[in-house]
């Protein structure tokens, strides 16, 4: 685990000392948008036109943020148009690596680099900051388009529609405000909330995060007792953003990140909803439990220094969900 400082790799754990033991996630720095005609998006520069074969996605199968982008690549039929490389699940002193000694770890299929930080310095030799996945790479301009998953999924949702002919919309105009409200609560207390609990280095920081996390799960359990999806009958990005944290909850977050007041399977609606999404196209084929379990238990020295992988419950994600 480390970061780049003026383009030089430096091995360092998250600094929580200045925040009373709280984990504070840094903002992503590459914020360009791919658009149908290459005009600029809501942030960054122009010149990133949606074209088949031009872009490459670096992911970790373990990472919930990268997982979102894999789901949207699948939902929107982008597999033939956007190539991928998947990092090795163990993120140690060198950060994410392109070692290939584990099933599913592809190596850097574009440039045959060893480390993900070399992709960042290829885009910006003086980059300072964390080296995170996902990374959306432009092969033509030789740079990073975006390293912000929330924005990458919105690009995938619509920018390539003319290329693929797939016009299914997971961010429908009429529901955007409602989606934003739900996203904000789920991001703050759950998607990022599990990390706030797990990476807390003071009791107070943990206590501040854990209450709202389970309040959100109780709220979701109630909401999903009335409707199939978060926005009603229609599946939207809000569901997929929630899914990537739910699917990791019992195997990882419950124990490893101390989110253990309840398990996912203790919430009948949420658990059935998770299975519903898992069984949907874009679900199961983007989930790699081996990478998920290995990554978290191996990569966080301060939490699990002996890298012992717990036995974990047997979960049947293929059991009928009865939410049709
Ligand atoms: N805001 C980013 C966050 C991505 C992120 O934090 N990814 C984690 C993996 S789950 C990572 O690469 N962490 C490496 C680090 O923080 O050094 C996004 O949503 O795209």
Automatic annotation (TrEMBL):
GO terms for cellular component: cytoplasm. This is Glutathione S-transferase family protein. The active site is at residues 63, 195. The record marks 253, 296 as: Lowers pKa of active site Cys. The lineage of its organism: Bacteria, Pseudomonadati, Pseudomonadota, Alphaproteobacteria, Rhodobacterales. Keywords: Transferase. Glutathione binds at residues 96, 130-133, 148-149. It comes from Shimia litoralis. Coiled coil: none annotated. Residues 62-158 form the GST N-terminal domain. The keyword Transferase applies. One of its GO terms (molecular function) is glutathione transferase activity.
